[in-house]
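Changelog note: in this version the structure field was regenerated for every chain. One regenerated record is shown below for reference.
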Amino acid sequence: MIELRATCDHNYRNFLIDRLSLPNKINVPTRSDDPKWTSKFLDAFTRPEAEYYVDHDYPGWFVWGKDFPAYEVNPKQGLQFDEVETNARKTIANLLDREWFKSFFGYLKQEPRDGSPDRFRMASSMLLQFAFELVRDGLTSVTYDQLKEETEAVFEDGSDKHQHRATAEILGALVNAYRDSTPKNRDMMWAHVFPIVKRIFEEGLTPENSSYWSSFLHLVLVISSLHTFC
């Protein structure tokens, strides 16, 4: 809710009328007069170096409009918080020390006991995402290196399906928390997350844990941060 308030320009009226804004959202002008525009647009998806990110499909494969919304690759500034939001984030961050994350990670690894199905818990991963954003912004006492150590302690040898479920939830939260950050933060996150995921997909998938990692992919590739709302 804190981030949602910030995307509404700190104004509850904007929330009620669904008027949201993101600092890295831009409008890309099209070249409807250029017969090669569509092929150039599609060809850009084959190259890792991008001028902008396109998170949604828009009309225009045959007839282009004047522009379409996209997102800056390296935004000059992130989401801006006012005094109320900043104080709320600091208050929450003061509670999130290493012991808190260790305890929460341990909870994630527990076998479900309330009769609920054993599956990837989207709510837990999204809660962690916002906690990790406080770590990313330097508001907590815990560091990213300490989070790496705690994540490794959760996965252990990967022989148990609950280790996989908890790790998938944690890594999904890390990706979504750091994906829209600075290049330095993104590189740090991917240097940690990608080798783990690559190893699991090459060597560690089983019928018992594959659904967790399918949900992980759905979270990081389909459900993406606040872009979903705009």
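Spot check on this record: The chain is about 50% helix and 5% strand. Residues 94-229 form one domain.
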